């Protein structure tokens, strides 16, 4: 199923809310997404039409299995990319977080898989080289 970057962002926000609070509310989604509640309601209706959420006005909001799968994949990419940018490339955490949020929606699973393989290789086989690289980046 084809979903837009924005739809992935909504699904990821709902996943995080459910994970952290156990409940998903329009006002909380609006806060995370930095939008007004009516925008959230519109997005929920579209996501419900695609079978990614269960939503009825003034009722609870739930991710369907399909919606949860997309949200988990997006969130997992986000977490990995942030960690890769910080731990392997030496990017400051606040920049890494922002960049990961953008990058996660466009990078393929093939690329993420290869990045994970590279990170594992460099951390296990070349820890001294990685340490030197990061030290030089911190000194810049």
TrEMBL record:
What are the entry keywords? DNA-binding, Transcription, Transcription regulation
Pfam families membership: Fe_dep_repr_C (PF02742), Fe_dep_repress (PF01325)
Does this entry carry the keyword Transcription? Answer: yes
- HTH dtxR-type domain location is 1-64
Tell me which domain of life the UniProt entry assigns to the organism this sequence originates from.
Archaea
MF GO annotations: DNA binding; DNA-binding transcription factor activity; protein dimerization activity; transition metal ion binding
Give the Gene3D superfamilies listed for this entry: Iron dependent repressor, metal binding and dimerisation domain, Winged helix-like DNA-binding domain superfamily/Winged helix DNA-binding domain
Matches recorded under InterPro entries: DtxR_MntR_Metal-Reg, Fe_dep_repressor, Fe_dep_repressor_sf, HTH_DTXR, Iron_dep_repressor, WH-like_DNA-bd_sf, WH_DNA-bd_sf
Q: Which residues cross the membrane?
A: none
Q: Which family does it belong to?
A: Belongs to the DtxR/MntR family.
**Name of the featured protein:** Mn-dependent transcriptional regulator
In which organism is this protein found?
A: Thermococcus nautili
């Amino acid at each position: 199923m084809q979903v837009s970057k924005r739809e992935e962002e909504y699904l990821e926000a709902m996943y995080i809310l459910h994970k952290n609070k156990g409940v998903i509310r329009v006002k909380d989604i609006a806060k995370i997404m930095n939008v007004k509640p009516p925008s959230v309601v519109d997005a929920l209706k579209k996501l419900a039409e695609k079978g990614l959420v269960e939503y009825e006005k003034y009722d609870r909001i739930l991710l369907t299995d399909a919606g949860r799968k997309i949200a988990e994949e997006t969130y997992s990419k986000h977490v990995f990319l942030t960690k890769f940018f910080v731990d392997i490339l030496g990017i400051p955490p606040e920049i890494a977080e922002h960049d990961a949020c953008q990058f996660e929606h466009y990078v393929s699973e093939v690329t993420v898989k290869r990045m994970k393989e590279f990170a594992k290789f460099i951390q296990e086989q070349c820890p001294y080289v990685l340490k030197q690289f990061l030290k030089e980046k911190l000194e810049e």
